[in-house]
Amino acid sequence: MRFLLPIAAILATTQAVAVKPDLIVEARAPSFSFEQWARDIAANPDGQHLSPAEALAAGHVAATADNSLELDPRSLEKRARCHPTSRPAKAPDAVTCIQYLASIGSRACTVTANQFTQIFRRCGSATISATKAGDQGGIAKTDSCANAAITCGKIMDQCFRADNTVAGSQMTVNGAYQININ
Q: How far apart are the C-alpha atoms of 95 and 166, rounded to whole Å?
């Protein structure tokens, strides 16, 4: 009988500790996303946003953080195609290009008729281009530069490499063309 009270105290403590990890998971800050960063710049080009260097630093932190307890709501989305063998762009250069495209927002980014590929921006080692489907050669394809930048952000989120480079492609939201970063 004299052990009953200490055993009850241990059980009460064990139950309290078992609840604590749930509180930690709920308190986590949302992870950084290049896609959301580009979306925010496109929505308000004159607003306060992370610089390309700050966004890249936040991207590094997000890529190395232990998110094993979190469920990524985008985990079921179609992923960008990452190109491990193609010439990658240096991530700082790619992020600078993305910021520019997002800042010009609703301006049209077009692949003209009779053209298969159009370069939208070059920054250092990075080239952001768009490619139409092979059977659409005589048709101009247009999307906003904001959507092109948001698509680039998605590529950065999914294809950003540990060696601080990126190479990948993804269709724009309206399916006008494929965006490429290399």
A: 10
- For residue 176, what are the CA distances in angstroms to 36, 42, 139? 21, 19, 11
Token couple for 75: 């985990």
| Nearest Cα to Cα of residue 95 among 44, 27, 165, 30 | 165
Residue 134 gets which letter from DSSP? G
Dist CA 58 CA 54 (whole Å): 6
Instruction: Give the 3-state secondary structure of residue 179.
Output: strand
At 178, which amino acid appears?
Q
Give mean pLDDT in consecutive 10-residue pieces for the chain, a chain of 182 residues: 51 47 46 93 94 93 64 51 83 97 94 91 97 79 95 94 92 90 94
Number of H helices, E strands in the chain: 5, 9
Quickly list DSSP for 135-159. Answer: GGTTS-EEEEHHHHHHHHHHHHHHH
